[in-house]
Write a sequence for this structure.
């Protein structure tokens, strides 16, 4: 697991207007720096997982695609999936799995909540975590739908670990750890061995099918 680095992040909000080509230059440089590292990981037979994280140039699906294109879809360029960061960005964390499941090889089980007000939104107003509209929470205490996430990952045959990452501005770390492991265990889905409605295990019978349709 790693972070991408943040050449372009200081220019996230385009005011004053960004110099033309600035972001493209930043991502070209980012890819040039990471390409030999990705090649080294490939020789070692190890995936490199970028945590998609605010504060880094790779902070959502669009920026990951920009980077992936520049490293020529490198097979070792993969993702650490952490839905808490997407809640705070107001990004659809379930559809993210649909888009990028082939690249997701790590999973942080971390919760978050986002409750904007008339005074504060995504940027948080420089407030400490306890006073922010978007806050990390202990698993099960926030707004992340982990049941849906584990279902999606099982649907796509996710081969990796579900790792507890605890960050909460309210609950103690000891309590969060004690609750977190059973929380993950309860959500792990043992995949079905076959279709639930294929109870008869029947094989296609073309003649029978034609008779049922009145074609014989």
């Amino acid at each position: 697991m790693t972070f991408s680095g943040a050449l372009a992040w200081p220019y996230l909000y385009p005011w004053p207007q960004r110099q033309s080509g600035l972001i493209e230059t930043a991502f070209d440089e980012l890819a040039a720096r990471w390409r030999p590292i990705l090649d080294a990981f490939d020789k070692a037979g190890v995936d490199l997982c970028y945590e998609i994280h605010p504060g880094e140039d790779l902070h959502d699906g669009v920026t990951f695609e920009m980077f992936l294109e520049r490293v020529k879809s490198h097979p070792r360029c993969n993702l650490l999936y952490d839905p808490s960061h997407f809640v705070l960005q107001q990004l659809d964390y379930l559809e993210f799995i649909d888009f990028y499941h082939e690249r997701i090889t790590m999973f942080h089980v971390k919760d978050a909540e986002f409750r904007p007000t008339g005074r504060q939104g995504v940027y948080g107003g420089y407030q400490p975590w306890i006073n922010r509209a978007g806050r990390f929470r202990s698993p099960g205490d926030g707004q992340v739908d982990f049941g849906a996430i584990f279902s999606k990952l099982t649907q796509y045959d996710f081969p990796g670990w579900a790792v507890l990452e605890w960050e909460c501005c309210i609950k103690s770390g000891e309590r969060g750890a004690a609750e977190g492991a059973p929380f993950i265990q309860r959500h792990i889905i043992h995949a079905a061995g076959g279709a639930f409605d294929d109870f008869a295990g029947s094989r296609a019978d073309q003649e029978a099918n034609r008779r049922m349709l009145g074609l014989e």
Q: What stands out?
A: The chain is about 35% helix and 10% strand. The CA atoms of residues 149 and 162 lie 11 Å apart. The helical segments are 22-44, 61-70, 83-89, 93-100, 146-155, 173-187, 206-212. The longest strand covers residues 104-109.
